[in-house]
Design brief:
CATH class of the largest domain: Alpha Beta
Organism: Segetibacter aerophilus
Number of helices: 12
Strand order of the largest sheet: 5-4-3-2-10-11-12
InterPro entries: Calcineurin-like_PHP, Metallo-depent_PP-like
Distance between the termini: 50 Å
GO molecular function: hydrolase activity
Oligomer: single chain
Pfam families: Metallophos
CATH architecture of the largest domain: 4-Layer Sandwich
Structural class: alpha/beta
Order of helices and strands: HHEEHEHHEHHEEEHHEHHEEEEH
Number of strands: 12
Protein name: Calcineurin-like phosphoesterase domain-containing protein
Largest sheet: 7 strands, mixed
């Protein structure tokens, strides 16, 4: 019966998931981002302003783990192995970990159950905190950390020391003549159905989570309704594009974006280059990749004139267990993926894209 219901309901369930995940309003989104950035850079009331050395400092940015309780509705369950290995790597190499929201799934679950089920992850995160290299930003699904009077004591219980919670972070670096601000926030601001309103939380906790758990359906895959995610990312891009020497980094959509382009948009650029060089084999391969992504629901992009100023970390709860994130190291910002390697029987790091921060400071076009 469960298998029959899975086949029957998977598409409407994912439509419903997208409906309740993102309905942003442009004016609300842009005002929220403007106000938050101004607050962080003027009085630090809502976030952290951190000066850094682009050549020597190291940051890893992960978002959207949605740690659950190891039941059928736990989207993080498949990705935990990759996440733990990734944290071990970044701790060993002395990265600062910026956790960009929705780390814990607290709309569907009670905090006590999440704490009990994710002791291994919290232990790995604690190592960063012990050397003052852990920055925790709240999202809409873990809004509890910002608005509950018990959040401070609960965090201290998890990490064995006090943890400051931020709505956003600005990393500021300077070269010989210019400065660059990297503005990081979860990205749910201005989204009426994702800002923690009571009806959405009630619906998810009482109806959506039990149904997802029974059907064993994970909607966090690029296969479903990417046009909604792309629309949200577009609003983020439209806010940051007119800004001078500011990069915007968010999570929330579960769709990686690098230099303002999604993976599909990058394929179109590669296709254009392959056609110009008359590389027929490459053209065929890229066209096949594009066709697959269209079949999965992704839409034809329009990236003409895009400024490379918007980035999205993706998520750590894809249904195949992969996780994506952004690294800042040695003057570069990079999109990376961790996936389980069947040959080595170990999670492994894969570099997907990289660009020098100096090129973004000078606003050079990057192809």
């Amino acid at each position: 019966m469960r298998k029959f219901l899975q086949e029957l309901l998977v598409k409407p369930i994912n439509r419903l998931a997208d409906y309740y995940s993102s309905r942003p309003d442009k004016e609300r989104v842009h005002k929220a981002l403007t106000d938050l950035y101004a607050s962080i850079t003027s009085d630090n009331k809502k976030g952290l302003l951190l000066n850094f050395n682009a050549e020597t400092d190291r940051f890893i940015i992960f978002s959207d783990m949605h740690k659950g309780t190891k039941n059928g509705a736990d989207d993080f369950n498949f990705s935990e192995k990759n996440y733990l290995q990734a944290l071990e790597y970044y701790e060993k190499n002395k990265f600062t970990y910026i956790q960009l929201g929705d780390a814990e799934e607290l709309w569907e679950n009670k905090l006590a159950a999440v704490k009990k089920a994710n002791a291994d992850s919290f232990d790995k995160e604690r190592f960063f905190l012990q050397r003052n290299a852990f920055i925790k930003v709240f999202g809409n699904h873990d809004l509890f950390w910002d608005n509950s009077p018990f959040s401070s004591s609960e965090l201290e219980d998890i990490y064995a020391q006090k943890v400051t919670i931020y709505e956003g972070v600005v990393l500021r670096t300077t070269d010989s003549s210019n400065s660059l601000d990297i503005f990081l926030t979860h990205g749910h601001q201005g989204d009426e159905l994702s800002d923690g309103n009571w009806f959405t939380k009630w619906f998810i906790a009482n109806l959506w989570a039990p149904l997802q758990s029974y059907l064993l359906i994970n909607p966090n895959t690029p296969a479903y309704y990417n046009y909604l995610k792309t629309a949200h990312n577009k609003l983020m891009y439209e806010w940051v594009a007119p800004q001078q020497n500011i990069l915007l980094v968010t999570g929330h959509t579960h769709q990686p974006v690098f230099q303002s382009l999604t993976q599909l948009e990058r394929l179109y650029r590669r296709l254009e280059s392959a056609k110009e060089s008359k590389d027929e084999a490459a053209v065929k391969d890229i066209e096949n990749e594009i066709q697959i992504k269209h079949q999965k629901g992704q839409i034809l992009p329009d990236f003409s004139g895009y400024k490379p100023s918007y980035f999205n970390s993706g998520c750590c709860c894809y249904n195949d267990g992969d996780i994506t994130g952004l690294e800042i190291e040695a003057g570069q910002i990079s999109l990376i993926k961790w996936e389980y390697n069947e040959d080595t029987q170990m999670p492994g790091r894969i570099l997907l894209e990289t660009v020098a921060l100096s090129k973004l400071i000078s606003s050079e076009a990057v192809n």
